[in-house]
Amino acid sequence: MRQSTFDFDTVIPRRGTESYKWDYTDKMLGAPDVLPMWVADMDFVSPEPVLAALHQRVNHGVFGYTAKGPGYYAAVRNWLQRRHGWSVKDDWIANMPGVVAALRLAVDVFSNPGDNIIVQPPVYYPFFKVIKENGRKILENPLQWDGRRYVMDFQQLEQQLQKGASMLILCSPHNPVGRVWERWELEKLSHLCIQHGTLLVADEIWADLVFPGAEHICVADLNPEAAANTMTCVAPSKTFNLAGLTTSSVIIADAAKMRRYQQAIATQDLGLGNILGMTAMQAAFDHGEPWLQELLLYLERNVAWAKDFLRRRHPRVGWIEPEATYLLWLDLRYLSVTEPQLTEAFYEKARAGVHMGSKFGTGGEGFVRVNIAAPRSLVEEGFAEISRGLTYLENNS
After folding, report:
1. Are residues 304 and 222 in the same domain?
2. pLDDT confidence bin for 32, thresholds 50/70/90
3. Predicted confidence band at 1 (pLDDT cuts at 50, 70, 90)?
């Protein structure tokens, strides 16, 4: 095994840092003493070029209003070109505090109260929140299990589109099921949305965390028609562990749609952005690629370790092979237990702070989501606790 240039093994204590993941498990899970494997951030130090850029900016000492300069746009453009072969223009790019905020604003700008918006559960649950809290209606197009992986149900999707939908929010790659959509799937989805006058909003925050054998395709890059009918959200937050710096980018190729979106940004005073977040994003996109390549290898080994552990200890756990993300989606339906029984087993009988699948909507019941983006020692400790919980359930259900 090739020796890594970067240190992903050192455990960095995060308790007492106001970490949402480590310091707020009691509030969020009702379980203060669990090992947190739920929130989707990493327990790794961000790349050195990012830290160096932040130190340099902090040492300057003045943090006044700061505009987005040419370096910001070049960093986004060059990253998308290098990593995904997608050529974008400066005037397609808008800055937002985060992807969820970008989605919320998109719902407000591109739909009206009472409109239908389609999601594909089980899916990242803030999608539901930004729809409901904006007074829109959720239409579900649940993913289907084909015996090998999750797929889109295009027949049911067309039925939903025929009811009228202003927007479809796509998770690509998909959180929590780990799918990387193939070109033909994205082409069919895009075509159906165009045909029915439905804006396609693509959350592509996981685009850089794709495992060998899969290739992320930016849906807006399929063809000019797709570009004109797509809004894409990207960010360095998952890729480089920068979520706390609240910086993301929105890509809209259609000039009229971009004008409407930028006007809404200005109206809500969201345009200036986070000075340190933009500094970190630019450094990450410009200089973070070697670190990312090593990270992907480390995550791949963590996935393989977890798969082997479960096969040996709990072979009846349903394993869904992740094509992307650092999240495992484990099928525990063989236990035939209720969610209160799952939470008791994992949060009380063990110290396994997993995310309950029901949070992700239809099709999530009986599943748990597990974050493996941590030093191996923490992953091993976490899976020991998961095993304790599973053993308790297997012996008592």
Report:
1. no
2. confident
3. very low
Domain count, the chain: 2
Query: In the structure encoding, which two tokens stand for residue 381, read together?
Result: 């400790």
C-alpha angle with apex 168: 164 to 243, nearest 5 degrees? 155
pLDDT at 387 over 70: yes
Q: How many Cβ atoms from other residues are within 10 Å of residue 256's Cβ?
A: 9
Residue 256 CB contacts under 8 Å (≥ 6 apart), including other chains: none
CB 328 within 8 A of CB 322: yes
- Torsional class of 325: left (φ above 0), alpha (ψ -120 to 50), beta (otherwise): left
| Domain end marker among 287, 318, 351 | 287
- Read off the pLDDT of residues 253-300 as tens digits, 9 standing for 90 and up: 999 999 999 999 999 988 788 999 999 999 999 999 999 999 999 999
Structure tokens at 260: 């409407």
Continuous segment of H or E residues that includes residue 106: helix 99-110
Three-state DSSP state, 184: helix
Which amino acid would we find at residue 319? W
Token output for 233: 């959200």
Strands (E), 15-125: 35-36, 93-96, 116-119
Reply yes or no on whether the pLDDT at 2 is more than 60.
Answer: no
Separation between Cα atoms, residue 299 and residue 24, nearest integer Å: 25
Query: Is 180 in the same domain as 249?
Result: yes
Element (H, E) at 252: strand 248-252
* CB 10, CB 361: distance < 8 Å: no
Report which of 88, 87, 95, 101 is spatially closest to residue 69, judged by C-alpha positions.
95
pLDDT tens, position by position, 69-113: 999 999 999 999 999 999 999 999 999 999 999 999 999 999 999
Q: How far apart are CA 122 and CA 124, in angstroms?
A: 7
Judgement on whether residues 255 and 353 belong to the same structural domain of the protein: no
Q: Please give the model's pTM, rounded to 2 decimal places.
A: 0.97
Tokens of 288: 């973070």
Please give the helix or strand (H or E) that residue 203 lies within, else none. strand 199-203
- Average pLDDT estimate for 232-236: 98
CA distance 252 to 231: 5
